[in-house]
Design goal:
By secondary structure, this protein is mostly helical. Helices cover about 65% and strands about 5% of the residues. Strands 1-2 form a two-stranded antiparallel sheet.
Length: about 190
């Protein structure tokens, strides 16, 4: 897969054709994870989300794919942007109506304690609010955002995230805990 990604990055169209069957099932699973976090009546289906992400990935003509983890991280970013654009479009039509919800509990991972939930209030946040918080966090520490993208959105393990970033698993665990704590405070309205 890494060789096909590299060939595709160099412009080899046949590499892309051979790559699609290898990654489709994983991308569809990733899309399913995303959509399970959405409201039950969401109009996008996993297949449609994968196809839209494919269209965005195909436009990445200058991409230099280095490994599987990087590819899935970019795919996760594309899916997140598609869902955020979809939510913003819907919210613009409804003017603050039924916003997309993402359970904070889904952000958990092995070995990383969940932040304490507030005593009252929902445990979900609007996807648009999460996206805005991630943009704010990127201004403070872009590496923490990258960890969130790889762990939460791409669904990579601690070890896969460490490999994709070229750091130790311990570093990923620390950054993941810090990012989750910052986002929890930010999304609950407290100063980070």
């Amino acid at each position: 897969m890494t060789a096909l990604l590299a060939a595709w990055g160099r412009g080899d169209a046949s590499a892309y054709e051979r790559l699609v069957p290898l990654v489709y099932a994983e991308l569809r699973e990733m899309a399913g994870r995303y959509l399970r976090r959405e409201r039950p009546d969401h109009t996008l289906q996993p297949t449609a989300l994968v196809h839209e992400a494919y269209l965005r990935l195909v436009d990445q003509t200058s991409a230099r794919w280095s490994n599987r983890e990087q590819f899935f991280a970019i795919a996760a970013q594309a899916m997140r942007r598609i869902l955020v654009d979809h939510a913003r479009g819907r919210d613009a039509r409804k003017r603050g109506g039924d916003v997309v919800k993402v359970p904070l509990a889904d952000a958990g991972g092995p070995g990383v304690p969940e932040p304490a939930a507030p005593s009252s209030g929902p445990t979900e946040v609007a996807l648009v609010d999460l996206d805005e918080a991630l943009h704010e966090l990127a201004g403070l520490d872009p590496e923490l955002v990258r960890v969130v993208e790889l762990r939460y959105f791409a669904g990579l393990t601690i070890e896969e995230t460490a490999s994709a970033r070229g750091v130790s698993p311990a570093t990923v665990k620390r950054e993941w805990a810090a990012a989750r704590a910052w986002l929890f405070r930010r999304l609950r309205g407290a100063a980070p």
